[in-house]
């Protein structure tokens, strides 16, 4: 039988890859084109789970996914996908103890950028559109069929999704499935209406960001990411063959068609001004591309990965936020395992969509007084801590109750 994946972003495409590796038959449905949205337009900054950028369950997700990125780099070719270890500098002073060397300042960077934000031991980068191209090539070679159509609903029998309804120019049709994975990114909120009995995230659209790419490859030689900390939140990610920057968050309406998401001229200008203040030589470089895309959120701004509540074979994986390229492979891997009825390689309990059901109480909280039960039910990290270290967390909760 066939697993149908809705969405050709990094979550959907890596889910396809991990399913194919286990011999499953996969059809990927994409309404526009593989990597047409954020997975093809993102920066590609990757931070390991224990690099100090993440903590708790997100840290474990990031650790698993960082390791998967390293595996993908070996499998697909590090150079081909722009994978390499990097350093990161931000606006500010080095703050290193006397005698300890900080991150060397590249000659192209304004002197105010000395704040050490990490080095090659925990940081890396990938060029997302190249990674997505290589992933698409890999899944196609392994027999994944890619169907360009918009998924508009599901046909359900009891708790089982039997088929996915598709809209194509001039016709509607459906494909049968043994399981469905919803990797729809910012458009995941549409799936809530497909499962009226269930509770799925309703608020999956974050801010739109504008990105600019220059043809400057000299900047990329130092492999140093730059956080400007400016009003437009511009971050500069030099790559080996070009220099990428993004910033200027805004909150317009999300269109249905990803191709309608275009960067306004004034936002491109703002990102350019902030980037050039940090990297003056960019003023002489040529802009080769500018794009815009939305951050994929969720009601509590955490990733959502798990079985759609009250179904036996529908899996949702969305809400990657600003770390969706980093965490995409682990989210895709977990979704693939769940679609096959297997346990994901790491505990994904903290990302279970059940948490959006206000009546849901994790088993671990069932014997607590109502107030603490509600606290644990709404806080997946607390629930997980309680599962792992019940005695200590119960003591802390008891103190809170007093
Ligand atoms: C400007 C910017 C920079 C970023 N930089 C980084 C970074 O440096 N590092 C990092 O880790 N993360 C970064 N991110 C986050 C990351 O890009 C996203 O979290 C990630 O790409 C989301 O992947 P996805 O597969 O969930 O969604 P998407 O990439 O949005 O893919 C979803 C796909 O589903 C398709 N789809 C939706 N609905 C349907 C439907 N009904 N039928 C068929 N197809 C459908 C869409 O067309 C789309 O192609 C950045 C994000 C932004 C906005």
From TrEMBL:
Lineage start: Eukaryota, Sar, Alveolata, Dinophyceae, Suessiales
Question: Pfam families from the entry?
Answer: DAO (PF01266)
Q: Where is the signal peptide?
A: none
Q: Which InterPro entries match?
A: FAD-dep_OxRdtase (IPR006076), FAD/NAD-bd_sf (IPR036188)
User: What are the record's GO terms for cellular component?
Assistant: cytoplasm
FAD dependent oxidoreductase domain sequence ranges: 4-338
This one is known as: Oxidoreductase C1F5.03c
Q: What is the organism of origin for this protein?
A: Cladocopium goreaui
């Amino acid at each position: 039988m066939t697993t149908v994946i809705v969405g050709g972003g990094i979550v959907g495409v890596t889910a396809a890859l991990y399913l194919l590796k286990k011999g499953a038959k996969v059809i990927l449905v994409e309404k526009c084109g593989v990597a047409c949205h954020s997975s093809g337009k993102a920066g590609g900054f990757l931070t390991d789970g224990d690099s100090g950028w993440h903590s708790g369950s997100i840290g474990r997700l990031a650790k698993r996914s960082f390791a998967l990125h390293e595996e993908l780099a070996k499998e697909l070719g590090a150079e081909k996908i722009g994978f390499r270890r990097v350093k990161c500098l931000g606006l500010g002073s080095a703050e290193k103890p006397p005698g300890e060397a900080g991150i060397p300042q590249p000659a192209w960077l304004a002197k105010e950028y000395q704040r050490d934000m990490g080095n090659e031991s925990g940081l890396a980068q990938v060029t997302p559109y190249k990674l997505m191209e290589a992933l698409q090539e890999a899944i196609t070679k392994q027999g994944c069929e890619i169907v360009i159509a918009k998924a508009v609903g599901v046909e359900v029998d009891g708790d089982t999704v039997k088929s996915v309804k598709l809209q194509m120019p001039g016709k509607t049709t459906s494909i049968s499935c043994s399981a469905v994975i919803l990797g729809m990114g910012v458009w995941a909120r549409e799936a809530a209406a497909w499962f009226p009995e269930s509770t799925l995230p309703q608020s999956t659209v974050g801010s739109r960001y504008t990105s600019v790419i220059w043809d400057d490859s000299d900047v990329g030689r130092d492999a140093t990411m730059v956080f400007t900390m400016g009003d437009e939140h511009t971050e500069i990610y030099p790559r080996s063959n070009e220099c990428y920057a993004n910033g200027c968050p805004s909150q317009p309406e999300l269109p249905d068609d990803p191709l309608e998401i275009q960067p306004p001229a004034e936002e491109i200008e703002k990102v350019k001004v902030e980037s050039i203040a940090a990297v003056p030589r960019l003023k002489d470089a040529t802009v080769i591309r500018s794009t815009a895309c939305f951050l994929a959120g969720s009601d509590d701004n955490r990733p959502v990965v798990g079985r759609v509540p009250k179904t036996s074979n529908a899996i949702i994986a969305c809400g990657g936020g600003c770390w969706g390229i980093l965490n995409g492979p682990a989210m895709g891997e977990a979704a693939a395992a769940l679609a096959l009825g297997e346990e994901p390689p790491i505990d994904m309990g903290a990302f279970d969509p059940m948490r959006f059901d206000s009546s849901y109480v994790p088993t671990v909280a069932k014997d607590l007084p109502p107030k603490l039960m509600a606290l644990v039910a709404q806080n997946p990290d607390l629930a997980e801590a309680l599962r792992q270290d019940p005695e200590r967390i119960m003591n802390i909760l008891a103190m809170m109750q007093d």
